[in-house]
Amino acid sequence: MTTYDERASLTDLTATVERVRSSVEGVIEGKPEVVRLSLTVLLAEGHLLIEDVPGVGKTMLAKALARSIDCTVRRIQFTPDLLPSDITGVSIWDQQRRDFEFKPGAIFAQIVIGDEINRASPKTQSALLESMEERQVTIDGQTYELPSPFMVVATQNPVEMEGTYPLPEAQRDRFMARVSVGYPSAEAELQMLDVHGGASPLEDLQPVAHAHEIVKLVEAVRGVHVAETVRRYAVDVVAATRTHPDLRLGASPRATLHLLRAAKAAAALAGREYALPDDIQALAVAVLAHRLLPTAQAQLNRRTSEQVVQEIVQRTPVPAAPQQSGFGGLGATAYGQQPPRRL
Questions:
Q1: Of 223, 248, 273, which closes a domain?
Q2: What SS3 state is found at 73?
Q3: pTM reported for the whole predicted model
Q4: Is residue 40 within 8 Å of residue 275, measured between CB atoms?
């Protein structure tokens, strides 16, 4: 396998991501920040939850992202009668072999689109827990590895909509980020009528990146440096959610890990080999808000989880970049430099 240095990998990443971004934005008009967050989650090895009202392009975004990458794609339409075995697979008795044969479910794909995930029962939703966290499926005591890269892109309607079940806390915690598409601007909606009026642009969408490229870019993102002060800042932001008076459930340690991975991916997308506190701040709401549960009093006061996270980010002191002394001291490491080794 060809070895790439980190700088070359980040250069390749920028070019590849630009192709994917342009491909997706050819279908989803006027939502560059939503597309960028989706690509950030993909390169950070996370899963994406798209939540919004019907008809704003949630499934279209998931399909456009999946078709822009030459990966295996499966779609699961979540309905109240969907069974866990429909997702993970089932062992069927083979009369000729006189043995059980495993029939893989829809989860065995590199990109899995879960449409309206909160219309299935919590029992069916829980079938995704192992696959999303451990990237494997266990059926009848046998473990099956999932392909790489692996990403679940799920859409859901707000819980106020008819026929929806709230996602369990454990399920929400496995999604790296939640994004809302929102209504388009008047100009973007006019452009949508021109582009989508005759035929769906998804029909002509061709892959612009391959699975092996995505795997290589994920490895490049892993190599992005995160200074000790930035890691501590991420821990401080997440820890503040666990003691905030407006929250009865704060963010988990998994949320801290997801926030750090997303910050590394955001830094790589910006062409940097190191993460900054700005990356933590920019991603805090998307990564943390959907995991939090406000208190009853906060709900009465119409305080949302997003508002609480924004308040925490504003109140948490931002670490200053250490000054370089020129002598290579351990306490004088800038954000973008690797700390020197002790001899």
A1: 223
A2: strand
A3: 0.85
A4: no
